[in-house]
Specification:
Layout: H1 15-18, H2 44-53, E1 54-56, E2 62-67, H3 76-89, E3 95-96, E4 102-108, H4 112-121, E5 136-137, H5 151-165, H6 171-174, E6 178-181, E7 195-204, E8 207-216, H7 221-224, E9 229-235, H8 239-253, H9 260-267, H10 269-278, H11 298-301, H12 313-322, H13 328-337, H14 341-375, E10 379-382
Parallel strand pairs: 5-6, 6-7
Antiparallel strand pairs: 1-2, 2-4, 3-4, 7-8, 7-10, 8-9
Length: 383
């Protein structure tokens, strides 16, 4: 309590306790009576889903079922169909999780096969909830103004790759958690993950290259018992390679029963940084352009845009500023829109002033960038 703060000085408010009368109404009521799952064969796909996405509830005969949402996405159509499944199998109650999935409680164990079939029918029957392929990510550069790198793009790439090899993964690797943030603000929980990454950027040859800083050995259990160890930054396009190498190194060097977090503590930052440094090299743009665009960049993936040789993003931004120059059509529309001479004159002044400002802003920006490029080194500072 802050110094000088006296609780007794606050006037009594009935709302502090009135909600307690409503607590009984929050109680969840199962849709079906408890019934255990019999031993009949259900198929390998169902058994794989059940192994990762369902576990027995404390109440005999009931189970908790997790609905895996790839990088937290679900469509409105899927949500409506999921609501139908919830009414049928779990009593009209759903819960969201910190790992961007949805949980159904009070599912009768005997109903798990039917629930699984229903989830598959709406594209939500993916196994692997809470495993290494169930990657958590914030919006990143997709929608966040603070985003520096495409956390969702990287998460989608890692999820797809890891899901494809999940059946053959060692149990210790499959149990790891990967969490990604588009910047240092940790909305993607990177500091609590076994393998965490957050977006940064670096200049290479005067051109921005998306990077992710590596954070290893966080503890998401025990109420976020420990933060991860920050190691170094690697290009976004090398993160999947790093995940493959660090997990292989862990399996090869761990002691019996050693958890990943304990392994990272034992080997130390310097040894892991050696691996990071090996993957931090960025080739010149002319040799490999892929490093200079982020994962799942829609324009690049669809072939709508390819930057010409020698053209950096700063050039495009400067050209965009100059693109604000435009008065011919604007003046024409002004003449159509207004009849009052005073309004027409004011509109002309506004249009011409905006064009002048756009031209000056574009010129100044490109000039400053040109001067900065002359002074820049091949590898600049991280931002």
């Amino acid at each position: 309590m802050p110094p000088g703060c006296n609780v007794s000085s606050f006037p009594q408010d009935a709302a502090w306790t009135s909600y307690l009368r409503e607590v009984p109404s929050y109680r969840e009521h199962p849709a079906q009576a408890p019934q255990p799952l019999n031993g009949a064969a259900r198929g390998s796909a169902f058994e794989r889903w059940r192994a990762s996405n369902a576990y027995r509830q404390k109440q005999t005969g009931y189970a908790v079922a997790a609905v895996t949402l790839p990088i937290g996405d679900i469509t409105s159509w899927q949500m409506r169909r999921l609501a139908d499944l919830a009414r049928r199998y779990s009593g009209d109650n759903v819960r969201t999780t910190v790992e961007q999935n949805i949980v159904l409680r009070w599912v009768a164990e005997a109903d798990l096969p039917g629930l699984y079939q229903g989830l598959c029918a709406i594209g939500l029957g993916t196994p692997g909830a809470g495993t290494v392929s169930d990657v958590v990510a914030c919006p990143g550069t997709d929608t966040c103004k603070l985003g520096i790198a495409s956390s969702r793009g990287l998460a989608g790439e890692l999820s797809q790759r890891l899901a494809g090899i999940a059946p053959g993964l060692d149990a210790a690797v499959n149990a790891l958690h990967i969490k990604i943030s588009g910047c240092f603000n940790a909305c993607g929980q990177h500091h609590l993950a076994d393998l965490g990454f957050y977006g940064v950027s670096r200049k290479v040859g005067g051109t921005t290259v998306p990077h992710f800083r590596v954070v290893l050995g966080g503890e998401w259990e025990h109420n976020a018992g420990a933060f991860g160890l920050t190691i170094g930054a690697i290009p976004s396009k090398r993160v999947p390679d790093f995940v493959e190498r660090i997990t292989a190194k862990y399996l090869q060097e761990r002691t019996a029963g050693e958890a990943f977090r304990k392994y990272i503590e034992r080997v130390g930052k310097q040894e892991i940084k050696t691996l990071v440094d090996e993957l931090s090299v960025v080739p010149p743009y002319e040799r490999d352009r892929s490093y200079y665009s982020d994962w799942r960049d829609p324009a690049v993936r669809l072939g709508w845009a390819v930057r010409p040789e020698g053209v950096a993003w700063r050039h495009l931004f400067g050209a965009g500023l100059i693109g604000g120059v435009g008065f011919t059509v604007a003046l024409f529309i002004t003449g159509l829109a207004f009849t009052d001479k005073l309004l027409i004159e004011e509109a002309k002044v506004g249009v011409l002033s905006a064009s002048l400002i756009a031209a000056l802003a574009g010129y100044v920006f490109l000039r400053l960038m040109s001067d900065g490029q002359k002074k820049s080194q091949p590898n600049g500072n991280e931002s």
